């Protein structure tokens, strides 16, 4: 009997502890807790290495103490985490990490062999791509034959046609990460709609009320997107799918997500996320 009473007390205590509100920290405080710089922390959040908690009423990201403790408990912290979020900017720096020349690095990136993780616009209003250093090192180990000698026939065809796959490869990663964090079908639909040209969204979503919902749920520009209007104009085209095959892929995904979102709305009697 005493054992049962003790078990009940322990269970009750555990329930009360689980019911206690989570301690939520803002991004600046969370970055300091993890010993990361602003850029390092933003990249860790982007990659899902540090998971967001419930947002503040104003929409700002917040992070639970439990999540920060989970990150701290991972093997090799903090050096391993810093290594995973380390980025290099441009062909010169990327080529040094890859162990090849800038011209070859640019060719590999343009042909889609390397996927950018971000971008920035420099003072000359030129677009500079960012790459994860760890991915470059892994590529050099996995594909040493591509770092020397003649380019494969497929790459030569792409270069002769003037193809540059860096924007679409970046969008593919960006959209994938956003979809992985989406809370439901309306949020997923909003992510996919956000990278489609306006005319594609209009055709896929003829209901104006649904378009309002998708616009309200649209993700903000990615970290590093310039705020200065002239620089933002340089980067803005990156946010929208361009080649027909890419546009078609995202539109098909949008229509599928919308079907799920509409089913959800029909079951709850409400339009939009619940």
UniProtKB/TrEMBL annotation:
Annotated InterPro entries: DUF6397 (IPR045652)
Domain of life, source organism: Bacteria
Listed Pfam families: DUF6397
Stated name of the protein: DUF6397 family protein
Organism: Streptomyces racemochromogenes
Taxonomic lineage of the native organism: Bacteria, Bacillati, Actinomycetota, Actinomycetes, Kitasatosporales
């Amino acid at each position: 009997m005493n054992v049962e009473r003790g078990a009940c007390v322990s269970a009750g205590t555990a329930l009360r502890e689980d019911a206690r509100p989570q301690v939520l920290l803002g991004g600046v405080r969370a970055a300091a807790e993890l010993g990361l710089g602003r850029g390092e922390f933003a990249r860790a959040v982007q990659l899902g290495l540090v998971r967001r908690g419930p947002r503040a009423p104003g929409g700002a990201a917040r992070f639970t103490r439990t999540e920060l403790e989970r990150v701290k408990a991972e093997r090799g912290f903090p050096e391993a985490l810093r290594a995973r979020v380390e980025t290099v900017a441009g062909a010169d720096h990327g080529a040094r990490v890859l162990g090849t020349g800038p011209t070859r690095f640019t060719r590999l990136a343009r042909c889609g062999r390397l996927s950018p993780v971000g971008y920035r616009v420099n003072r000359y209003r030129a677009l500079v791509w960012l790459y994860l250093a760890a991915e470059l090192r892994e590529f050099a180990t996995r594909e040493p034959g591509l770092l020397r000698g003649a380019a494969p026939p497929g790459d030569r065809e792409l270069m002769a046609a003037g193809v540059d796959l860096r924007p679409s490869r970046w969008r593919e990663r960006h959209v994938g990460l956003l979809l992985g964090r989406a809370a439901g079908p309306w949020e997923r639909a909003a992510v996919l709609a956000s990278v489609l040209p306006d005319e594609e969204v209009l055709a896929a979503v003829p209901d104006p009320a649904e378009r309002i919902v998708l616009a309200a749920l649209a993700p903000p520009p990615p970290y590093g997107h310039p705020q200065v209007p002239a620089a933002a104009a340089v980067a803005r085209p990156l946010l929208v799918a361009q080649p027909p095959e890419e546009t078609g892929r995202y539109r098909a995904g949008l229509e599928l997500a919308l079907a799920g979102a509409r089913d959800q709305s029909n079951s709850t009697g409400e339009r939009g996320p619940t």
